[in-house]
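This part of the workshop introduces the protein records we will be handling. The structure tokens are whole numbers drawn from a learned vocabulary of backbone shapes. The record below serves as our worked example for the rest of this section.

===
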Amino acid sequence: MSGELRDNRGRGEAEWGLPAVHPEGRKFGVIAIGVALFFGLVVGWEALGWLLAALSAGIFAFFRDPERVVPQGDNAIVSPADGQVSLIAQVPPPVEMQNAAEDGSPGLGSDPVTRISIFMSVFDVHINRSPIAGTIRRIIYVPGRFMNADLDKASDDNERQHMLVERADGTRIAFTQIAGLVARRIVPFVKPGDIVAAGQRIGLIRFGSRVDIYLPAGTDAKVLLGQRVIAGETILAEIGTTGLLEGVNQ
């Protein structure tokens, strides 16, 4: 049940069920089913009808919206996206987030921080979630190109949307939704001033993309390059925690 508290002592209930389909995707699935029925039953092109029926099932699967169990640690930064950690680098924050905003809220500055890039294929869940609890301070949309989102320069060249979340203690974390070769629409669910919980749904990107998250200064990643992460569940880092982690690909 959504909102139920669970812990590592067995509190809560575990259940299985088919994930819901986000309303943003239902219309696309219904349209695909309608087209499949038209060609399969009205026109009589059964092969094409079955092909379109399979496509409609894929559309519903793409927009699936499963429940997640979000860790509640005070300093935990959870993954904003499902996918694979494709890049970890020390880079300056996005230029749009470096300076103070018009309302006087501070920016992130230009000093390099750790950026974790998460690549989402068309088979991943594309609902994005807030990495921390706090207030949405900025949402900045930047038009751009539609290159392969797995490339490093996609952070600067592709169509993207930056979000800045501020905790009650003033810690600020930025993350960026980046469109890719197939993705053509970034859909936000929140607006500046909204208060969000860690792991709360904040938007989606249609059809393959990437999310970058910029960790606070003095914080290192707790995930490794190539690792699979789950939005709202995988802890990417703990604020103020540093140290080298190594893994072996097997």
The mean pLDDT is 87. The radius of gyration is 19 Å. The longest strand covers residues 83-91. Residues 23-43 form the longest helix (21 residues).
